[in-house]
Amino acid sequence: MPKSAFLRDAQARGFIFQCTDLDALDEAMLAGPITAYIGFDPTADSLHVGNALSIMALRMLQRHGHRPIALMGGGTARIGDPSFRDEARALMSPEKLAHNLNGIEGSLRQFLHFDEQDNGAILANNADWLDKLSYIDLLQDVGVHFSVSRMLSFDSVKQRLDREQGLTFLEFNYSILQSYDFRELNRRHDVRLQMGGSDQWGNIVAGIDLVRRTDGKQVFGLTTPLVTTASGAKMGKSAKGATWLSAERLPVFEYWQFWRNTEDADVGRFLKLFTELPVEECERLGVLQGADINEAKKILATEATAICHGRPAAEAAAEAARQTFEQGALAGELPRRDITAQLLDEGTPAFRILVEAGLATSNGEARRLIRGGGARLNDIVITDENQSVTHADLRDGVAKLSSGKKHHVLIQPA
């Protein structure tokens, strides 16, 4: 069992998958605060739940007195990380890249404190140094320390090549540039630890080796596990797409609802990973059964949402859910969908309104939903798929439309 507070907490909560030298890192953390970083490539204008474990690792690091650095990949995004991907990422325009960087900064600021305190988080962008590199200088300075045969042995590269999907020379350079990032952050900010998901192990080890070879320093790597649900689904993915951390991309109520819909078997584990409740309380809640586990899910949803969006917004979402599911009320915090006013002027079949509201992906799916008794308008079951929905169905300018027990929206004319 580690002796330093961060590693002890990280191990108890299930954050540690691999570490290059756990005992030496433990000693370094016992000796005093260290600085660690995680990189985030701006592939969208918001981070999502799939990134949440990495962000929570930085947040935990900061809570235990160490300094976190969130490195935005403004430079590496122009290449794209090939790790465990089936194909190369599409290259972004400078305007799109700037837009995404701004959005990701907002996501990170929801979780970390970027103030002037001793361990205030640092927001860095690797474009600050990668954009200035001379190719020949990079080859002479860094390229000589990389073995192509070793790079080909990385699981992330081998899987791509084994599937005969090809790997461009552009992508092949990603590991070199990420290693360069580690060395640069070590020189600029004395960064001694890089963390990341388990898919980054090869890149992290390469960076550690580069720092040792060129600067003679010992630095460390730690990866978090790949998080999947008990049923095997990838964390943060759904039929509707990614579960975004930005309220502009995903309403707070829907973010709360994502956690509320956690599978029973995942509640205790997710409480440890995505909330800051004591480990003992997470374990107690995680073994509840029957109706009690539903109460544990509400606690998970509220605590996880409070970290991302603030306590008031989380409690408002919880109250909206209570009103919606327990009282059948029209809750103002439900996501809203604009419906063309003309559709309500003329009266539109219920199945088509379900599609317009995003509760069904096709007319056929909507018809089947209605036939199965799973569609409701203002909490009343829709029995006729051709039932006309008009302005008369609005209450205070909105109508509540439901698909099953868990998916609800307010439709409003636009």
Number of helices: 19
Count every beta strand, where a strand is a DSSP E run of 2 or more residues.
15
Order of strands across the main sheet: 1-6-5-2-3-4
Cα(first) to Cα(last) distance is 59 Å
Q: Tell me, what's the shape?
A: globular
CATH fold type of the largest domain? Rossmann fold
| Gyration radius over CA | 24 Å
β content, as a range? 5-15%
- Spans of 5+ residues with little confidence (pLDDT < 50)? none
Q: In the CATH hierarchy, what is the class of the largest domain? A: Alpha Beta
Number of domains: 3
Could you characterize what this model shows?
With about 425 residues, the protein is α/β, with parallel strands linked by helices. The chain folds into three domains: about 5-225, HUPs (Rossmann fold); about 250-325, Tyrosyl-Transfer RNA Synthetase; about 335-414, Roll (Structural Genomics Hypothetical 15.5 Kd Protein In mrcA-pckA Intergenic Region, Chain A). Helices cover about 45% and strands about 15% of the residues. It contains 19 helices and 15 strands. It has helices spanning about 5-15, 20-30, 50-65, 95-110, 125-130, 135-140, 150, 155-160, 170, 175-190, 200-215, 250-260, 265-275, 280-285, 290-310, 310-325, 340-345, 350-355, 365-370; strands at about 20, 35-40, 65-70, 120-125, 190-195, 220-225, 235-240, 240, 335-340, 350, 375, 380, 390, 400-405, 405-414. The strands form four sheets. Strands 1-6-5-2-3-4 form a six-stranded mixed sheet, sandwiched between helices. A five-stranded mixed sheet has the order 9-15-14-11-12. Strand 14 (about 400-405) and strand 15 (about 405-414) form a beta hairpin. Helix 12 (about 250-260) runs antiparallel to helix 15 (about 290-310), helix 12 (about 250-260) crosses helix 16 and helix 15 packs antiparallel against helix 16. It is globular and about 75 Å long. The model has no long low-confidence stretch (mean pLDDT about 90).
